[in-house]
Specification:
Length: about 120
């Protein structure tokens, strides 16, 4: 399952939508960290292709990955150029896999990359 998550991140880095059909279940539910939700592999692929028309993922670095039973948790750093604007943030992905080792549910959570220390 950890290899599948790495493969998914690589799809974004390489702008490769073909592997998404091997990674996600047909009836996947994918929730992005800022609100949009996609139901089914066709919506996930459409979103991927639409996003890559305006954007380019520059980095999607895995900080750590944990797995238990049929779930994987990934902590990561993300950086992209979208509509000529640089974005960067930290995040966590929670992915659940079905019996065929395909992602059936994926949820992303975002955190600001820059941190400050109010008591220092």
């Amino acid at each position: 399952m950890k290899n599948i998550m790495k493969q998914y991140f690589d799809c974004w880095l390489n702008n490769n939508s073909e592997e998404l059909f091997w990674i996600f279940a047909d009836d996947v539910i994918y929730s992005e960290c800022y609100g949009p939700e996609y139901h089914g592999i066709n919506e996930v692929v459409q979103w991927f292709m639409d996003w890559n028309k305006k954007g380019k993922v520059l980095k999607w670095d895995i900080k750590q990955m944990l797995s238990a039973e049929n779930k994987v948790v990934v902590e990561w750093y993300f950086e992209c150029m979208y509509d000529n604007e640089l974005s960067q943030f930290d995040g966590v992905t929670l992915a659940e896999f079905n019996e065929d080792n395909k992602i059936i549910c994926l949820k992303e959570f975002e955190s600001k990359h820059e941190h400050y220390y109010p008591y220092h």
